[in-house]
Amino acid sequence: MSEEFKSGKLSRFLSLGTSLTKASAQLALDAAKNKAQDYIDKNPKARDLELKIKASKEIIQTMGELKGAMMKLGQMISISEDLVLPKEISALFANLQKNSPSMPEAEVIRMIRENFKKDPRELFLEFDLRPVAAASIGQVHRAKLHSGEVVAVKIQYPKIVNAIKHDFQNLHKIDKLIHLLYPNKPNVDNMIQELKTSLIQECNYITEMEQIQFFKSQFKERFPMIVIPEVYPDYCSEQILTMEWVEGDSFEETLHYSDEEKNFLGTSLYESFLFSLWELKRLHTDPQNGNYLFKRDKIIMLDFGSTREFDPDFLVDYCGLLMCLEEDRFDHYIVISKHLHFFKEDEPEDMIKRHFEMIKSLYAPYTKSGTHPIEAINPFDLFKDFFKDLDFKGRKSPRQEFLLLDRSTFGLYAKLKGWRSEINWLEGRNKFRNSIENEVKFKYQF
């Protein structure tokens, strides 16, 4: 990490702006130099990919240095694998989950003193000043309590809350970049506010401690294969979180597990997601791979900074939308999709029908009985032409709850796709959704 963390609005914007400018300029320069070679090689796509990778490296490095919202954005991109960006570029963003600059040792000591009025080696029997991991909001150190337990101590970057607030204030300054990607972009103010609220919540480690305790108590009997580390409240504050030290394999290492083991892990992750959504009405919403460790019969969940509680009425509408797809109820789909702000009140019915048929085809494999792996369909390719025909100008985006719900669903999809887990989708659904289905039937007279 640089000697002084950049938390100011101007310094953070200039860092990102410089990175984008350098990357864009280099991309243009390299493209000009290699244009003739493209004609010779007759492989311009490969050359274009190579140039984009070079440009991405510059931007990714800056995201890692800035931490906060910029680094979190990079991590969100990384879980998309090859669905949004070429897999070679998504793989670069994945480095943000593992490698980013750490804060100086003096800052670590100062943060512990400010929170506990003691030096690290007074508060703990042992404390390693070298971090074992650095992420978007804080970094993790290995330590040992005086009672003998080995713990992971997560320390928040100083002034990170200000940095995140400044990142959002700077958003309008990169509006031109967004406009290049989405010329007729909808009004996404509600989504931006949702992301901001989520990131600010992540900065309160007391809130995270409470979420850890909640999910641990709820999963204990229903999902004994899911391990959530113990927290030590006496060693926690808003800026420091102390948890049981746990070890396991990375997601990438699990790809070498047996098919039987991957099926077990996939089914466990899928069913715990359904239990959380439909029964607890609360989700863990930061599914990047760095927040998980695995054993052949265990899933270890490490980070509960980002969670989302859902209003029961929203979940009834969302469940109703899924039931419309399952039962081919287009008339009900029109009503519910408008409630959820997918469409305007005066939307042409043929446009809604196109959307309905596309979503239904995407969802159909998960309505089949029996056990089978996830369907490797790229939804962005499926919707490409539909979005071209949709006038986004002035259109509201869907309900803000979808930002974190979709983020969580997307992370689940990516893991199950990577494992090729054979899952009984209907069995899992029927275990956890029956109660809310009755509410849908009552509300919409199915």
TrEMBL record:
Q: Which Pfam families match?
A: ABC1 (PF03109)
A GO molecular function term, named singly, is: transferase activity
The UniProt keywords, alphabetically, are:
ATP-binding, Nucleotide-binding, Transferase
CDD domains attached here?
A: ABC1_ADCK3 (cd13970)
GO biological processes: ubiquinone biosynthetic process
Per its UniProt record, what InterPro entries does this chain match? ABC1_dom, ADCK3_dom, Atypical_kinase_ADCK, Kinase-like_dom_sf
Family to which the UniProt record says this protein belongs? Belongs to the protein kinase superfamily. ADCK protein kinase family.
Q: What protein name does the entry list?
A: Uncharacterized protein
